[in-house]
Amino acid sequence: MASAPTAKGHLLVIPKYHGAKLHNLPDEYLQDILPVVKKLTIALGLNVDGPEGTGYNVLQNNGRIAHQVVDHVHFHLIPKRDEATGLIVGWPAEDADMSELAAYAKELQAKLA
After folding, report:
1. With CB atoms counted within 10 Å of each terminal CB, which end of the chain scores lower, N or C?
2. Where in the numbering of this chain does the HIT domain appear (predicted)?
3. Per the residue annotation, which of 23, 67, 74, 76 is the catalytic one?
4. 74 counts as catalytic
5. pLDDT exceeds cutoff 50 at 1
């Protein structure tokens, strides 16, 4: 991720607790993040759906391989008002084997129990 804004209104929401990655933060430092982001979307006028819609991305990266540059958890709110500005994503999608996904889901459910 570039260190410069990608669109007017691109901002960061930063927890006060220092942790390099999301899993390093205590839950209480995360509980207000989405409500704050929601309020900011309204303040930026991103909650108004026009004929072509207004979009935005909420982005949080963990680790260099995942494009994290700053070693302090932070969340990007990136307005997407047109095709030329904001986050541009290239998603390397793969065909899914549904039986493998179902088995993996069961494995994860067991770890969460």
Report:
1. C
2. 1-87
3. 74
4. yes
5. no
